[in-house]
Amino acid sequence: MSDHYERVKIELQQMKEVENEAAADGEQLSPASVSSIPAEVSFTARRDLSRSSVNGRSRSKSRSKADGHERQVNDKELPDPTAQKSNSSQGQSRVSNEPNLHIKGTARLLKGKTAANGHVETCVRQTDGKCEHHGKEDGSKAAKKRRAVTVDTSKAKTSLEALKMSIRQLKWKEFPIGRRTACDIYWHGVSFHDNENIVSGQVNKFPGMIEMLRKINLSRAVRTMQELFPEEYNFYPRSWILPEEYQLFSTQIRLLKDNDSTLKPTYIVKPDSGSQGDGIYLIRDPADLRVISGAQIKQAVVQDYIQKPLLIDKLKFDIRLYVLVRSLEPLEIYIAKEGLSRFCTEPYQEPSQKNLSHVFMHLTNYSLNVHSGNFVHSDSCSTGSKRTFSSILYRLASKGVDIKKVWSDIIALVIKTVIALVPELKVYYQADIPPGKPGPTCFQILGFDILLMKNLKPILLEVNANPSMRIEHEHEVSPGVFEYVPSPVDEEVKVGVIRDTLRLMDPAQRKQHATSNTGGGSPEEAIVVETGSDEKEGMADSLPSLCLKQVFPKYTKQFHYLRVVERIAAIFLRFLGVKGTMRLGPTSFRTFIRNCKLSNSSFSMASADILYIDITRRWAGMLPDSREAGMCLQAFIEAFFYLAARRFKALPLREQVVLLLEVCEGALEGQSHSEKPRTHRSHTHPNPASSQTSAPTTFSSPALTRRRQRPLQLSAKANTEN
User: Where are stretches of biased composition, namely Polar residues (predicted)?
Assistant: First the structure.
């Protein structure tokens, strides 16, 4: 009875808050001061503060305390006289009290003032000993009235504690059991479909992200880009998809060993839907594959294994970086300046038949190594089995390593990977939220797992749709009895990522960003991690973050030429026709051929039908779980590559595809705007000598052959592991 009473009491309190918001037009929730931790403060001080905040939490909080918090948030707070005094102070005393902010990953200091929400406002200039802050003409204008942002945390799951801390620091409103009226932000723990009844606001998951980041789909997306841009995408290991490519894998490995009997390559096998290191193992021969033994044939990816990773303290480690995809259209990507380094717990040795099964030596997964007797939980950021990435960078810098080059390579890897994912994500997005249908906007935090080779080249291991946001770890107090203990390293990194993601998704800030963002990108031609790279962020109105750095569209000019497959996906979406579908039917494919004027005397509509049936049937066999009939995006891309190879035979595949895109886009644009001349894109590579002579109707084109059987590469391998 008491639980029911308390629940009803909270619901009534929430309804009262909604009424108060509507009635109190002149009232304001004043931004109370939040203790932000400057980045230059020692890790010990941050650890003490975070430990006190974690220890202050209790999983058995009384409902009366929760009600008291609701009343405190709902009622108008009294301004802090000390804060007012600080804001009104002038002259040298004001300047001297401002903290110096050390940006991690760079070698610079920003002079700034810590605002009430924890954001450090960068000083624009100093005049007569006074700092003039952008956007703050006086203290009264800074206290602009606004409604508190509401966050539904009822589906947050494992990220709940870090999310609660972030909301408290921002002085926003949390609704832990949901809300009858719409919230500004919905925080889901697993997928976009955790809550099916959202028609407005923002959700922290994209439709289809879980599916796209499974091992097989990620490999297919990156392999498509490797066909077009092999040099740009050499950060992802050579991979084979099982069981469909088992024969290809066996043949290539046999040929490799026949050519050089001294070679003893090692491969890593990852289950398609596995996580936390479950089911991963190493092999040296295709006969050792477990996924093809017995009656059950499991889908998996097998990849080259890196035999010479960078070691620290003789231990192998990987890097977990958090990446925010703020939107797909326009594409916006942010990277956290701080990450985690997860260490193995057994000294590394190159793979041999004797140590292939030593998971604590070869696999860096935290969920595996935490069960090792050698795992070290540390309160320090630079020791133990889990450390901050910045501590690794500082250690490398002390040995003369150019950490700016390391960072720029990692940023490029992240941008290229997201560009590879975007085409199919747009198909998923349109299927769930068709144009014209009410629905939320989406954003998502991804976990990139990256391995540094001995030569400091970053290698992509995998991308996690739901990276762990736990800020505590299990501690066994007695046999079989565990308790959750705060993890200062996790809290330092993860709370900042969630908090600053919320800042960037603040509805008021998004409106300002939408009106001010031209999407033109930066005039920079290279990724530069230097003192001036964040200065404009610190002065912008689009709520810049202390720990999230925008990398796209900032570096649009450097990477825009890679978005070729995205243009193919735009044509695919145009001809889908039926809202909510993700497959192209035969009639729609014929319409595509006809409207783009791709048929001629040697490639008739009957040939187009045969092409459609051939490719669609083969892809249906590779996607056994699909319940929808028709041509998927990957099959359409293969058909597009085939058509490009037919039309422009004497050119490399990339130029063939770009030229065919010009043909299709020109024809479609001419239909929509017949009075306008055809436009040419600056990033294409037109070749006046390209031949458009027709070829006999055959479906074994060079492009199709490359997709079915990739050549064996004997160069230095980029290998991977989870």
Answer: 83-99, 685-703
Q: Which two tokens stand for residue 72?
A: 């405190």
Residues with Cβ within 8 Å of residue 381, at least 6 apart in sequence = 43, 387, 388, 390, 391, 488, 489, 492
Are residues 580 and 427 in contact, defined by beta-carbon separation less than 8 angstroms?
no
Task: List Cβ neighbours of 710 (8 Å cut-off, separation of 6 or more).
Answer: 223, 238
- Enter the tokens of residue 191: 């997928």
DSSP per residue over 412-430, as a string?
HHHHHHHHHHHHHHHHHHH
- Distance (Å, rounded) from C-alpha 714 to C-alpha 716? 7
The pLDDT value given to residue 290: 80
SS (H, E, C) 199-242: CCCEECCCCCHHHHCCHHHHHHHHHHHHHHCCCCCCCCCCEEEE
CB–CB of 585/613 below 8 Å? no
CA–CA distance, 148 with 508 (Å, rounded to integer):
10
Closest CA to 226 of 419, 429, 431: 419
Q: Which residues contact 323 (CB under 8 A, 6 or more apart)?
A: 333, 334, 335, 336, 414, 418, 445, 446, 447, 448
Which among 316, 323, 319, 397 is positioned nearest to 105, based on CA atoms?
Answer: 397
* 8 A C-beta contact, residue 683 and residue 326: no
DSSP 333: E
How many other C-beta atoms are found inside a 10 Å radius of the C-beta of residue 668?
Answer: 18
Cα distances (angstroms) measured from residue 532 to each of 103, 482, 543: 11, 47, 18
CA dist 40 and 37 (Å) reads 8
d(CA 513, CA 114): 22
Q: Report how far residue 92's alpha carbon sits from residue 326's, in angstroms, rounded to the nearest whole number.
A: 40
Under a CB-based contact definition with an 8 Å cutoff, are residues 38 and 49 in contact?
A: no
Strands, E assignment, 433-564: 441-442, 444-452, 458-464, 472-478, 481-486, 548-552
The upper half-sphere exposure of residue 229, i.e. CA atoms within 13 Å in the direction of its Cβ, equals 19
CB 622 within 8 A of CB 638: no
CA angle 365, 367, 371 (to 5 degrees): 110
For the chain (722 residues), the mean pLDDT of every run of 10, in chain order, is: 58 62 42 37 44 44 42 42 43 41 41 40 41 46 67 91 92 92 94 88 95 95 97 96 92 88 89 80 89 64 95 96 96 96 95 91 90 88 92 95 96 98 96 86 97 97 94 75 84 93 87 56 55 42 64 95 97 85 92 94 92 93 75 96 94 96 93 54 40 39 45 39 42
Compute the distance between CA of residue 605 and CA of residue 78 in angstroms, rounded to an integer.
74
Return the axis-axis angle of helices 633-647 and 403-432, rounded to nearest 10°: 110
User: Tell me, what amino acid is at 250?
Assistant: S
Q: At what angle do helices 403-432 and 564-574 cross, to 10 degrees?
A: 0
Residue 523 to residue 558: CA distance in whole angstroms: 9
Query: For strand 331-336 and strand 548-552, is the pairing parallel, antiparallel, or unpaired?
Result: antiparallel
Q: Cα–Cα distance between 213 and 210 in angstroms, integer?
A: 5
